[in-house]
Specification:
12 strands, 12 helices, D-Maltodextrin-Binding Protein, domain 2, alpha/beta, 300 residues, 21% strand, three-stranded antiparallel sheet, Arc Repressor Mutant, subunit A, 3 domains
Amino acid sequence: MPDITNLDTRLLAAFVAISEERSVTRAAERMNITQQGLSGILARLRNQFDDPLFVRASRGVSPTPRAEALYPKIITALESLRNVMHDTALDPSRINTTFRIAAADYALSVVIQPLYERLRSVGPELKLAVVPLQIDMVADQMRNGQVDLTLTVPEFVPDNLYTSILFSDRYKCAFRKGHPLATQKLTLNAFCEAEHLLVAPNGQNLHGSTDIALAQIGRSRTVGVSVPNFLVAESLLQTTDLIALLPVRLLRNCSDRLFVTEPPIDIPPFDIVGVWPERVHTDPINKWFREFLRMLIGDR
């Protein structure tokens, strides 16, 4: 049986950091120690587990099969140790803290109102601070403490961050109530011939999941304009002949302003995930908050 008397939690934390960063340099920065110090810890780990654990790769290091098998077990072990250190029951009603969230307008429209109402009823001193979602800044914002939780779609999640699905949604077609298409069934031909509006938070192209679905059946559409958020999208739809595919949860609040119908083509649904860094992964109040949010929004 391996001797664990000399195995301290710093070794395990270093193993996790190297596993997730795939770089001794970045792992050392993450742990706020020198690269030489981390190399010494890695040598102790290799001796403890009698395995190289990490080998040089074209960029950084790669885990050995032994390291890959150890990773989930070490994560669980560290989680258990932290739980021991926090053996008192968590009481949100007595906690004074602010949860910092980054999200685009769609996620905010779905989440913020019910979250604020329920959160205040649970803990009067629990507060929210919301910042705009900046796709290229997510990792930095989370690691430097500006953001505790980001709400976004999976394809925008940087590496080495934790994720969990909060809820799923699907698309329906929307346009102004006086639109010519509002008086007839929306056919595939009419759908393809209409001029479309696309919500593209990153603003990089005029191509989305709808275009992929159309291409699979040999069809295409014309996207006349892309906008960065859904608030602008709704305004344009009300004053032009543009049509758009918008999330069902968002359209629940637009039924008196827009005509909503099923699209004539199957568009894959999408997930909204919560994303958080190692910094708050095992923090009891942040763990409680993430589960609270998941249960609140997932049931709606």
